[in-house]
Design a protein that fits this description.
Helix content: 40-55%
Number of strands: 4
Strand order of the largest sheet: 2-1-3-4
Structural class: alpha+beta
Shape: globular
């Protein structure tokens, strides 16, 4: 599945995008926000976008989001390369970003 700026409501990151689905009273969502903000700040070209799941039920249904927090890791084109529910570990987010960046590089070589 591919998401674009119109779907998530913000521009995609140059290299990858971390999309977080949250709800207002979700305690693990706050910790997830901190982790994703830290990772996005560490890696150039990566954006963190947080989406209120209750406000975007259309997207929640389309993506089969069952709980919050749920994190999608998108490559530069917006292709979903990883989906995980629950509070992630920082190391797992970094590893998933590695997949997204290498996934996008393989697409670029296909395009040439």
């Amino acid at each position: 599945m591919r998401l674009d700026e119109a779907a998530i409501g913000e521009p995609l990151g140059e290299r990858a995008t971390l999309v977080q689905f949250s709800t207002a009273f979700c305690q693990p969502c706050r910790a997830t926000r901190r982790i994703l903000d830290e990772v996005a700040a560490m890696v150039p070209g990566v954006r963190h976008v947080e989406i209120d799941a209750e406000a975007r039920l259309d997207l929640v249904r389309t993506l089969d989001i069952m709980r919050t927090p749920t994190v999608l890791v998108l490559d530069a084109r917006g292709d979903v390369v990883k989906k995980a529910s629950g509070q992630p570990r920082k190391a797992d987010v970094i590893a998933a970003l590695g997949l997204a960046v290498s996934h996008d590089s393989s697409h670029q070589s296909d395009d040439k």
